[in-house]
Design a protein that fits this description.
mainly alpha; 5% strand
């Protein structure tokens, strides 16, 4: 049984993210530190996005020297995104959307229909 670390359980955002990440997946207790870190990076990313949203759509500011600079939250968000991808990979969590299965008229998916059709053609070719 995977036990949620206290540092994760004590934070509502991280606790909810832990529950989301572990639901329907099987992890070992040895994965708990990486999962906790993944929850932390998700929180960092969310905070950076919230801060960027509070700037009214602006992504840069002008410093005292008159130079246009990107808000630091953009760099934070880039780092958090990279860390999240790496931890997902390490933990075997796919961050890609599952492809939709298209159904054929008879209820099967397209791949099984094509495979069955090819098998039937091969069988007919051998019989001739």
């Amino acid at each position: 049984m995977l036990t949620k670390p206290e540092s994760v359980a004590a934070d509502d955002f991280k606790s909810a993210k832990w529950d989301e990440l572990t639901r329907g997946r099987s992890f070992e207790q040895a994965d708990a530190p990486a999962l906790a870190l993944l929850c932390q990076w998700h929180k960092v990313a969310q905070q950076a996005m919230d801060e960027l949203d509070s700037f009214g759509g602006n992504t840069a500011y002008q410093n005292d020297a008159g130079d246009l600079k990107a808000f630091p939250q953009i760099g934070t968000l880039k780092t958090a995104s990279a860390e999240i991808r790496q931890l997902n990979k390490q933990l075997g969590i796919s961050d890609q959307k599952e492809p939709e299965k298209k159904e054929t008229a008879n209820g099967g998916n397209v791949l099984s229909f094509v495979a069955g059709n090819r098998a039937a053609k091969r069988k007919a070719a051998v019989a001739n």
